[in-house]
Amino acid sequence: MNRTGKASPAAAVKDAALAALVAFGLFAMMVGLRTEIGPEGALVLRQRWGDVAILCLLVFLGRLVLSLWLGRRRIAASTAPGRWTARLQQAGRLFAPAMLAVALTLPAITQGDRYLLDLGILVLTYVMLGWGLNIVVGLAGLLDLGYVAFYGIGAYAYALLATEFGFSFWLGLPVAGILAAFWGVLLGFPVLRLRGDYLAIVTLAFGEIIRVVLLNWVSLTGGPDGISGIPRPSFFGLPFTMSGGEGSFAGTFGLEPSPSHRVIFLYYLILGLALLTNWVTIRLRRQPLGRAWEALREDEIACRALGINVTITKLSAFAIGAMFGGFAGAFFATRQAFISPESFTFIESAIILAIVVLGGLGSQVGVAIAALVMIGGFEIFRDLGEYRMLVFGGAMVVIMVLRPRGLVGTRTPSIALGQKRAISGELVGEGHG
User: Fold this and answer.
1) d(Cα 179, Cα 159) in Å, to the nearest integer?
2) Is residue 348 within 8 Å of 332, Cβ to Cβ?
């Protein structure tokens, strides 16, 4: 950088060359060398240095363009939204209702296509999980790396209640949420005095403890074999059967029996649960409890100075966020009819946290868009085979470089004296925000 704040071409080339060198160190073993089964059944080492050279060249060019572009930017401290942020805000006023309209009419738009409906169910499940974690991370500012534990607790709670005690889905769902909230409170007590990295380590350990317990408590959870034969949900007592007899969903409404009826019902069920999560979160955000969460996120010391009970604030955030994770887990169990500890690993927590960060901390619409991008986008790149993770990861890096505060990075206070002023994501360039 020179005195005018612009990056010189020589410095940009040097920075790009360094990035390409780092990329070569990563791709040399991951891409350049690959073991395959030879004609005689033995493993052979295949070399792909041409692919490595192409990837390093792309990294060099991308870093060069990025360095020159960032060097031309002059970031000024301002509470006014940037040019692109203002445009996204205007588009967001119509985008959220449009997303809701598409979600409500998706079965009709897709004409009952099983693949698209299953993808929609998966996306909505992660939307609900993202909104639940957004309470803890986005609103309260508590970094939770073990959120998948509550997801697993809800799933196993419903599975055990349904298989061992004959609970229906509508009775097991609230119980699973309450049990997950109870464990959220138990997690909250040991971490009351922890912040930042220390809080993240403890929550990560909690998630691993739950996974290990599920894996080793064979008499209760089935261990590695999991729990199978979990009852499917019914339409308020009307089962979905292919016989179409009296007392079934198709027979009661005079419809031709079809396997798509259950899938469509599951889709609208998770859509209703996700919308319930969104509605409760928005309502709580405008209440004193929600404002206490936001105050805790901004400055815990100032929050204590204002007389806010930090203990209750933290525990309520953990409990409510865990409750929605338990609801999602109960739905996952009844949809799959089988669960095992492999479904609740750390990678799930990482994906959910990435959805919240990518969408924008505290943004409901941003989390929904991020879930659609991450889960749906992963399916778009499926045809690329082994390169889909590389392309998808590169796209994620580009998004986070261009939008460091997330897709919806502008933070608007829930309650303000006088006119509300949004905090622009451009301030991240100075280290503020």
Assistant:
1) 13
2) no
| Burial readout 305-342 (b: 16 or more C-beta within 10 A, e: otherwise) | eeebebeebbbbbbbbbbbbbbbbbbbbbbbeeebbbe
Long-range contacts of 390-398 (CB under 8 A, 24+ apart): 390/55, 396/354, 396/358
pLDDT in tens, 18-58: 988 988 888 888 888 887 787 777 778 888 888 889 889 98
Q: Which amino acid is at 12?
A: A
Question: CA-CA distance, 116 to 113, in Å (whole number)?
Answer: 6
Quick check: 313 and 140 in contact, CB under 8 A?
Answer: yes
**Residues in contact with 109: Cβ distance below 8 Å, sequence separation at least 6, in sequence order:** 102
> Which residues, 6+ apart, have CB-to-CB distance to 55 below 8 Å?
23, 27, 31, 390
Q: Collect all residues with Cβ–Cβ distance below 8 Å to 271 and sequence separation of at least 6.
A: 103, 104, 124
Name the DSSP class of 426: G
What one-character-per-residue DSSP string does 291-302 give? HHHHHHHH-HHH
Q: Structure pTM?
A: 0.80
Whole-angstrom distance, CA of residue 71 vs CA of residue 12: 9
H or E element that contains 59: helix 49-72
| Residue with token string 């392309």 | 391
